[in-house]
Specification:
Elements lengths: L5 H9 L9 E3 L7 E2 L5 E11 L10 H19 L2 E11 L4 H18 L3 E8 L4 E11 L14 E4 L5 H11 L9 H4 L5 H7 L5 E4 L4 H12 L2 E5 L14 H6 L6 E5 L4 H10 L6 E7 L5 E5 L2 E2 L11
Parallel strand pairs: 4-5, 9-12
Antiparallel strand pairs: 1-2, 3-6, 4-6, 7-10, 7-11, 8-10, 9-11, 12-13
Helix pairs in contact: 1-3, 2-3, 2-6
The protein binds adenosine-5'-diphosphate and magnesium ion.
Length: 315
Amino acid sequence: MSRPSEFDLIRDCFASGYPLADDLITGVGDDCSVIRPPFPYDLAQSIDTQVADVHFPASAPAHLIASRALRCAASDLAAMGARPQGFHLALTLPDNDPSWLGDFADGLRRTAAQLGLPLLGGDTTRGTQLVITVAVQGYLPQGQRLERSGAQVGDDIWLSGPVGAAALILPTVLAAPATDNQATAPYYHPSVHLGFGQKLLSLASAAMDISDGLLQDAGHIARASDTGLSFDACSIPTAVSREHPRWSDCLTGGDDYQILFTASPENASAIEAAAMAESLSQCRRVGRVTAESGKVSVWDGAQLLNFQTQGYEHF
Ligand code: ADP
Ligand code: MG
């Protein structure tokens, strides 16, 4: 196969085959994308960068890299309660290998269709290292959003599903990056709870998606809300049981993309119904918001548990 020019590459890989948006006036091919937001909605936007060999193995199949990059970015929309509108993609590529790019675009198109996210535009550059930046945006009913700062003392803490599967499978992914099966799905194809996030808009007091480990990310809600988060160890849905030697890794390992949220106890049955409607059978109440500002604690009965790390940090 001959090497495509930058413009051939954009046409072949990014100009067609993605979900269409009825609010998109100008898409891939012009200087800007132009959308016409419906009234009365607010626009939620988020951007995420994934660097080869930092966020994923560089030798992983391109379609799996694409799936992971788009899903991790879209997770922020779910955590804010936004309805997906579309995404921009900035790609820095070490070379323009057409078969790699074709595979990447296949994975991107498939994932975009699954998430209902039109591709609005992007940028393509050459660089020494593969870097993928995805900017997602979505709509919120005017005045509504799920911020991290809304937790109230006495609220329940909830988790949309189990944590730990991605962290536990990471050694397998690193050793054999092409493994695409049920075990590696939490890493390459993390579930994005877009429908559930929108339902939580009227039910939750605070929310975020977990990317860097449950306990570390819980600290963000605790600090933003000026409250404490007290977890009941045995209620937390995890990839392995409480007795398993790697149980604590489930609470500190990253890459889960479940939604951690708080809600008034009077919303509990409505939340359970919303979770069932979204097939989130492992959505659980996992603790209680306390007055201990900024503090995250995990209790096993009357015993306070200690963890060596709380989660992943880049610096
Ligand atoms: P400009 O120089 O005006 O920024 P470019 O030549 O970089 O435009 O891009 C041409 C068109 O292709 C633009 O509409 C841009 O949004 C789109 N585009 C470039 N790279 C990508 C990409 N990786 N994914 C989606 N669209 C892209
Ligand atoms: Mg231009």
